[in-house]
Amino acid sequence: MPIQPFFLLLLGLIGVQANVDLRTAAAMAAGLCKAHPTDLVFIIDSSRSVRPSEFEQVKVFLAKVIEGLDVGPSSTRVGVVNYASRVKNEVSLKTHRTKAGLIKAVTKIEPLSTGTMTGLAIQFAMNVAFSEAEGARAKSPDVSKVAIIVTDGRPQDNIKDVAQRARDAGIEIFAIGVGRVDMNTLKQMASDPLDDHVDYVESYSVIEKLTKKFQEAFCACSNSATDVVFLIDGSKSVRPENFELVKKWINQIIDKLDVSESKAHVGLVQYSSAVKEEFPLGRYNNKKDLKEAVKKMAYMERGTMTGQALRYLIDSSFKPGQGSRPGVAKVGIVFTDGRSQDYIGDAAKKAKENGFKMYAVGVGNAVEDELKEIASEPTGEHYFYTADFKAMTQIAKKLQINICPDEDPCECDSLVKFQKKVEVALQALTKKLESMSKRIALLENKIV
């Protein structure tokens, strides 16, 4: 074979492989995160207590959150308000329509280094940053308005009333406190539930650990319809005061769901020595009614027949006659505080074989081996245990119900997965190119 055509053939093969791998990477990128349309404004404290090096870390945090968003005119628009004693609109919602442009603008923000007028900043965001003149979309249930406030100090002005007005105007507020921040201030600013909207980090150097939370917060699945059924242990060992904490915990999780006629439906079953359906799937299609129904649940007491409850889930709760929808993801959340008095193995296995995604939550005397037997794979992501009922709030934070079907390109933690997949693809491509280069070098040596 003439040497020149041979080399051209090799280069052509390399090029074809490169195009295949790059197309794969591009396809992954296209499904990075399908976001619900959101107008997002960061409100960042650059008062004199924030050192220049710390302010740089805040900008890195902003850039990383932006990197995981689906940025665009019809998806997520991003603005940045910088404040100290005065307020500066650094990035308007209408200014940058690409991640690259946004991140470049963020890197150029300089600290104002004066006082801490947080109330003034919230008022400015409400009047200016979220105005249509600055690129915000008209008020609509189809577009979310979100503010993320980062502060390390105590405000020098009133924030309670202005924050309430902002929330009443439909702005969802997340409050991030750093270092010696006043925690009560964060709670006065943030939206309910506070456990989801208030975060604290001990220093700016670790603020990046919140990145994943906010990347996930703005990721929405294209098909998020799901049927969720709670199986709640009402045995006598729970005790009435703890049963009230369990009900609050259920409502914390409901707050995280997109409850509606076409999206998440929720059912509730209580069990002890017997099984009682509190309400079936689809009876309530809004969070308010659901949460009221949960609050009205009466404590049964008696024994702990977890196996019987699991069989009820399989035989009744997820049947079409009980409100379950065909073709919709099925999620079971089992709560218990003790060892089951009947056998759970067969029912736990069958629930997973039926395709139900099973979460197991245990408190106090719950048996971790039983929780693991109930939980779906990977077990570490689907079972939770705490010794204290008062710590259940932390479980509600950790329990992230991923309702994206496996074939759906939307993955709530897709930024990390996407990066890993692309890295693997590029590493494989690099190895192939290196191998081809060595073969070409050997051929050249033989020819010489």
Number-wise, the strands total 12
Q: Which segments are poorly predicted (pLDDT under 50) over 5 or more consecutive residues?
A: 1-33, 403-419
What share of the residues lie within helices? 40-55%
Question: With helices defined by DSSP (H or I, 4 residues minimum), what is the helix count?
Answer: 16
Question: What's the pLDDT, averaged over the residues?
Answer: 82
Rg measurement, Å: 26 Å
Lateral strand order in the biggest sheet: 3-2-1-4-5-6
Strand content: 15-25%
Please give the largest β-sheet: 6 strands, mixed
Give the overall shape. Answer: globular
Output the helix-strand order: HEHEEHHEHEHHEHEHEEHHEHEHHEHH
Terminal CA distance reads: 16 Å
Which structural class should the secondary elements be placed in?
alpha/beta
Structure in words:
With 448 residues, the chain is of the alpha/beta class. It has 16 helices and 12 strands. Helix 2 packs antiparallel against helix 3 and helix 2 runs parallel beside helix 8. The protein is globular and about 65 Å long. The two termini are 16 Å apart. The N terminus is likely disordered.
